[in-house]
Write a structure and sequence with these properties.
The protein is of the alpha+beta class. It has three helices and ten strands. It has two domains: 71 residues, q64v53_bacfr protein fold, CATH 2.20.140.10; 91 residues, 2-Layer Sandwich (Alpha-Beta Plaits), CATH 3.30.70. Strand 2 and strand 3 form a beta hairpin. The chain is globular and about 50 Å long.
Length: 173
Amino acid sequence: MSTFYRAYKQDDQNSLTYREAWIDAEAEEFVVHHGKVGHLGETGEQRFGSEEEGAELLEIFIQQCTVDGYTDVNELQLGEVKASWKLKTTAGTQRDHSFAIKIRRTLSAHLGWRGLGEIIDPQNPIIGDGELVYRIATPAPRRAIESIKAAAREFKLDPTKLTCTLEKKAELT
């Protein structure tokens, strides 16, 4: 049973919006998050009494997204952004490995709450050849790059060592 769903829609003014929902079984809540891509979205919760009720809420949400013209994220042609930080050593130091965890947490939250996508394989950043690399699957690559740079400045993630590039089309894992 899937416990998460994300969909996007482009309107007549070329504005991209998103809707996503998930089941928080521990809190017994069905959570809906939606908004305009690139901006902090709105969140609402609804309590449920059983796993079946949570699954039913998610199924209704998915059906409504389809009726409203939203497209499942897995059916979209997503772009891929490469965010890389230059390191002082080729293989990275212990500090670099700790820094990688901070970056993963920060970028996951920063991009996710704005509908800008997700880190591909977030448990395994690439550390090698003197850089730390994260790949991000996103429906709005240029906005994602702007958001990554803003997060690096705001959360002191060594923005002077950050390089963002638009890569190929992304494959979600």
